[in-house]
Amino acid sequence: MNDMSQDGYVTEDGRQIGGVMMEMKNITLKFGGVVAIEDISFDIREGEIRAIIGPNGAGKSSMLNVISGFYHPQEGEVWFHGTERPAMKPYEVARQGVARTFQNIALFEGMTVLDNVMTGRLTHMKSGLLSQAIWWGKALQEEVKNREVVEKVIDFLEIQSIRKTPVGRLPYGLKKRVELARALAAEPKLLLLDEPMAGMNVEEKEDMSRFILDVNDEFGTTIALIEHDMGVVMDLSDRVVVMDYGKKIGDGTPDEVRNNQDVIDAYLGVAH
Amino acid sequence: MIDRSAAPSALNSIPALLARNATEFSTSPAYREKEYGIWQSWTWAEAAEEIESLALGFLNLGVNEGDYIAVIGRNRPNLYWSMVAAQMCGAIPVPLYQDANAEEMAYVLGHCGARFVVVADQEQVDKVIEVQEQLHQFEHMIYLDPRGLRKYDHSRLHEYSHIQAQGRAADDEFRPVLEKRRAALDLDSTCVMLYTSGTTGKPKGVVLSNRNIIVTSQHSSEFDHLKLGDEVLAYLPMAWVGDFIFSIGQAMWTGFCVNCPESPDTMMADLCEIGPSYYFAPPRIFETQLTSVMIRMEDAGKFKKGLFDYFMALARKVGPDLLDGKPVSLWDRLKYKLGEFCIYGPLKNTLGFSKVRVGYTAGEAIGPEIFDFYRSLGINLKQLYGQTEASVFIAQQPDGEVRSDTVGVPSPGVEIRLEDNGEIYYRSAGTFVEYYKNPESTADTKDAEGWVATGDAGFFEEGTGHLRIIDRAKDVGKMADGKLFAPKYVENKLKFYPNILEAVVFGSGRDRCAAFINIDLTAVGNWAERNNIAYASYQELAQHPDVYKTIQTHIEEVNKSIAEDSMLSGCQIHRFLILHKELDADDGEMTRTRKVRRKIVEEKFHDLITALYDGSERVQTTTEVTYEDGRKGSISANLELRDVAVVTPQQKMAAE
């Protein structure tokens, strides 16, 4: 990675990747005596699709939770847009422009798709309780403005036909898409996807891959994702971090990672 | 700058009609499309402005008179506009089926030599780019939805809105050219070229003139009293002649509003929101809607279900008569009113049919139960018979004379002639000009006097003068005693039973008819489940004695109804068997569009046909099957053959 200038690089398919957006410096995260993440450093650059992979229990989701501010590492620093980020509540991180989806879908099952996606706009709503209650003035304007953003996301992800359907009635693949819609509704700068393809069939995976690429292309959103499907990871991502037992064992382009002996060992298994 | 009001006064082209609408109906809605969850709407004046800007943009891009401009995508106002804009420039729009694959598209684009292609989105752009090497005349592509296209090479690719903006900017320069081109259009200039779907051989380009489209639109609009203020939902393929007539021809003639759904998946919800007053759908859609209603009623509570059943029985009894203006007792009228309040009204609202004044179905035969269901609710559903070469209309049902088994009387301005073999010929103002670059086919289909062969066989019903279609003319044969043999007529009657998926009737050149039956695994499987009948495979279920008994009853009912037609009474089925496998396109027994390939079935199952005619009770057979992955295997079975009671026409006379 040393050949990369501070100004970014150009990907194989000709996309210009910008400077460092988020940098993790020597992160260590412990739960009591269990070391989930041990001294890991890597960066995420503007406009890139960054994958975090590794076998089960490698600490990938913990890493994502550190980025989203849900966990606070005991050691190390998180730098975001050139400043060190103090320990924050997740909603504060969200206000900074970080949105995420979850490994186990976390939607409001009884609410419609539209309402669920609207909750993604929460960080953009500023009208007061009174205005909201009487539904007049600023609250109304805000609703219209937010609804417009939401409708564009609905159109983008092609879920118009389920706009008014309660989420509980949807199949799994569509729920995943609704979750992505909610994250996109926040208009994030950095989008975190925790196993966006888990449990999907080939067709659903293809759809989701296309949406991820389109999001990156259309909105210029930076994406960090965890995924188990190697085919998907290698096709989608610009750079890959590989974790195993809480340690970083590889970092580079998909090709570099694919030929990394440590990575091969971690996946195929060697005597430890 | 030339005065805009100096539009041609004679209504002899679509752009001329547009100019009239833009002045006379300037504030009436012309197009609506649901986008971002809201119905966006354009008045006739606004639509005219959009279309003119695009036309100017086309000129700026170098569109010449006589160029072909292909249009590919789902129903969207912008794509309808691009067709009219093409006409304004003296070019000829060629709408294509959006689900066609790249190869099929390459053929059509190459055949018409389209210099310009207007497409909806990235998917279509990709298809055209894939085949552009084969297209020597292709120059520029214009796309509507920029999503995903930012990084494409834009030397030959243009965004729709940019073309319009360039057109507006170049108004001064190109307005005189546009006016000149528009003024040059007359009734004989080509309005549109539509490719027939081509179930047999390569697609053929049907050239339709302004006369074809405008006169047909005028006649058909008057026939059904279509007027300004009517609403229509445009959701059927733009490449289909029907959509062109409804969404462009009749819309331009009457000034009614064309509504485009948000996406194909939201069609039903959008239908409900718009509540069209003029509606068209193939039988398949009516069938799907009916099934979904029935399934939901099965889950309803006892009270609601009882109410539904009671009023639906009443509707079936008196609904069609009320619609046809026949006498109905006062008591029944009152009850029907109550039913309208409790059941029919809400149901029609759910289906999106509350305001339907004129509804049409065509394309294939519709099941009488389905047809009657909608009629009994008070929906004026009618049938029509037509084809691309006729600018749709050949025959249609007038209000008050609607039945499920006819296609109505000849449309206004259409002459119909029947050949000895029953083949239908027609001649009208809507009769197509020619097949593009295909004089032989044109000569085969259309004679010097303008009579066009439909390839369908039918007859006029005595008394009513209604036309009844029986089959494709080439499939209609003679039986050994010279009686008419129309297999598809009988097969369709059989297929209306939910238990029967497919039927193949034999009898050409023989003394009696016999049939192969395919059961519908879903319907029969359901029935088996409810009656505690265990089965391990399709084959086992098909050979179950109770299934045979049910099918036998169905066939006997069909025989009874066939016997009522003196011309076709010879087609009654004497003997049948239920096939041990489903007829399948993978085995070549059907086309991909699920039409039976009679010849292949006859060859493949010749042993079974022999058995049907030699009187044996059972037959042992082995059939080769192809699995989806291309491997071959074989299945063998011991099939039962059954005799069916037939009704002789004389017996029926005696019974009456």
UniProtKB/TrEMBL annotation, chain A:
Superkingdom per UniProt: Bacteria
Boundaries of every ABC transporter domain copy: 22-270
Keywords per UniProt: ATP-binding, Nucleotide-binding, Transport
Keyword rRNA-binding recorded: no
DNA-binding keyword on record: no
PANTHER family for this protein: ABC TRANSPORTER ATP-BINDING PROTEIN (PTHR45772:SF1), CONSERVED COMPONENT OF ABC TRANSPORTER FOR NATURAL AMINO ACIDS-RELATED (PTHR45772)
Protein name (Swiss-Prot/TrEMBL): ABC transporter ATP-binding protein
Organism of this sequence: Pseudohalocynthiibacter aestuariivivens
Higher taxonomy: Bacteria, Pseudomonadati, Pseudomonadota, Alphaproteobacteria, Rhodobacterales
From TrEMBL, chain B:
One of the Pfam families matching this protein, by short name: AMP-binding_C_3
Domain AMP-dependent synthetase/ligase: 19-436
Signal peptide from the UniProt entry: none
Keyword line: ATP-binding, Nucleotide-binding
InterPro entries: AMP-binding_CS, AMP-dep_synth/lig_dom, ANL_N_sf
Domain of life: Bacteria
Amino-acid biosynthesis recorded as keyword: no
Keyword ATP-binding recorded: yes
Protein name: AMP-binding protein
Annotated organism of origin: Pseudohalocynthiibacter aestuariivivens
